[in-house]
Amino acid sequence: MAETVYLLLGSNVGDREQNLDYALTRIRALEGLEVTATSAIYLTEPVGVKGVQPAFLNQAIRAEYQFRPLELLHALEKIELEMGRTAKGKLEPRIIDCDILLFGEQKINEPTLTIPHPRLLERAFALIPLVEIEPHLQHPVTRKPVASYISSRANAGVMLYKDHVARNL
C-alpha cells in the first residue's frame, strides 16, 4: 500500500534551478513512486552553515510511494551521488540535497534515518514550500498544523524564486 511522502530538494552549487529540475526528473523515474504535487521554488539564505555560502533554492515534493522508507532514502542518496554530491556534512555547500521530511504517519528513529525530519519544525525553508502543497497537513508527532510553525520572523530569509502553474499533477 502506498504512503504519502513529502520530500525537500535543495541546491546551492552550480546551476541550482537545473539541479532541482534534474533531481525531480530522477525522482519521478523511481520505481513505486508517483509525484502528486510540487511547490514553487524558493530562494533561501543558508541556515547554520560554515562560512559564507551561496543562497539555496528549495522545492517541496508530495508523492505516493509503495516501498519502505529506507529504500526511498537509498534511492535519494543514489540520485545525490549521480549528480556529483560528495560532501555529506550537514553544513557544507551541496549540488543537491534530497531530504525525506515526512513518510505518512510513520515515526522512525534509526542511525541513518529519522522521520519526521528532526529539524523540520525549525526551518522556514522547508515549512513554507511544504505548506504550499499541503496547507492543512498535521505533524505526525505534535498533531498540530504544520502551518502553525511558520512565523513572520522565521520566514524572513525565504523568498519566492520561481512560481509555476502545474503544482498538483
Automatic annotation (TrEMBL):
Enzyme class: transferase
InterPro entries: Hppk, Hppk_sf
Keywords, ordered alphabetically: ATP-binding, Folate biosynthesis, Kinase, Nucleotide-binding, Transferase
EC number assigned by the record: 2.7.6.3
Pfam families xrefs: HPPK (PF01288)
Pathway in which the depicted protein is active: Cofactor biosynthesis; tetrahydrofolate biosynthesis; 2-amino-4-hydroxy-6-hydroxymethyl-7,8-dihydropteridine diphosphate from 7,8-dihydroneopterin triphosphate: step 4/4
GO biological process: folic acid biosynthetic process; tetrahydrofolate biosynthetic process
GO MF annotation, one: ATP binding
Domain of life: Bacteria
Regions that span the bilayer: none
Every 7,8-dihydro-6-hydroxymethylpterin-pyrophosphokinase domain range: 6-135
NCBIfam families: folK
Protein name: 2-amino-4-hydroxy-6-hydroxymethyldihydropteridine diphosphokinase
